[in-house]
């Protein structure tokens, strides 16, 4: 494995020294809570299988969803994800934790790098790692939590895993931001309402290797009530071969979430920019997107979710194509829980419209041999089945 892909000691030390200099006024995520009932184990294990059949009414001959990395295979049965994991939670009795898991399926193939980017050595194997990290809850102030390894991304609202989201297909902002991060993070609850996090990672996408320089970021999470949370995450780092500061990528992700007993609503807005090295005049690329996530537990096992969204990739830097996308997704879910198993059945309809110089979705038939035709609109109807076991 390339030496750059290993978390170096000086990155962790950098986080620790910076935190120490500003504590207790700053730091990261809310530390895990101790087990509620005495005798409950900190150890958990499980897994899930995620299958879908998506009807794409454009009927593209290559069966693919253009400019996307998840739920890409259409008009065929798609094993999108399978995961097995083991996890140990932090607790008052045991101040260390860990996560380790393996994954496979179509959704694990291209989620960790942009198209055309140089990949880390062994990327074809490493993409099968679900998570792999260790954490420690230090008895400093209100509790400083330090995590190193491969962990869930601090950018964005939705997960790589459909079972953790209200809709089955992911939003455009989710599919073009990191689902995972490789490096180190340190978090501290500044108060009962505010938590801060610092992180140092190998790159925007953890399986990309544009250069040998790390990237950095900070997150603040404000929770003034038990139902409302406002989260801001800022990222900055070199994500091109030329690591000069003027080519650094900066990215800001904002989410406001309200969770009720039956209804939850979240609004996400992202904006990113960087100068593109190697192009005439080093043009500045911009990307911007937003999504409104709504979910309503109608009755018992039945839920509805609706997500309108937009995404603008002015220079094609994130999606690979210059385009402006509008989409709306509607999902009906039936949840069957039995003992330690959960089965989710989802019916979903989705309409996307992509315009701009490079916009469009694959259409049936080629305009010339090997060159798929494009059309501005795409309509999907899918059925999914997610089987989970968690202990």
Question: Any chance you could write out the topology, listing elements then pairs?
Answer:
Elements: H1 9-22, E1 43-56, E2 77-88, E3 96-104, H2 123-126, E4 129-138, E5 144-152, H3 172-175, E6 180-189, E7 194-201, E8 215-222, E9 228-238, E10 248-259, E11 263-275, E12 284-299, E13 302-313, E14 323-338, E15 341-355, E16 361-368, E17 371-375, E18 377-390
Antiparallel strand pairs: 1-2, 1-18, 2-3, 3-4, 4-5, 5-6, 6-7, 7-8, 8-9, 9-10, 10-11, 11-12, 12-13, 13-14, 14-15, 15-18, 16-17
Helix content range of the residues, please?
under 10%
Uncertain spans:
1-37
Roughly what fraction of the amino acids lie in strands? over 45%
Q: What is the overall shape?
A: globular
What's the story with the biggest beta sheet?
16 strands, antiparallel, barrel
Q: What is the strand tally?
A: 18
Question: What does this protein look like?
Answer:
With 391 residues, the chain is mainly beta. It has a single domain (3-33, 41-390), classed as Porin (Beta Barrel), CATH 2.40.160. Helices cover 6% and strands 52% of the residues. The chain is built from three helices and 18 strands. The strands form two sheets. The chain has a 16-stranded antiparallel β-barrel. The chain has a two-stranded antiparallel ribbon with strand order 16-17. A hairpin with a 2-residue loop joins strand 12 and strand 13 (302-313). It is globular, with a radius of gyration of 21 Å. The two termini are 33 Å apart.
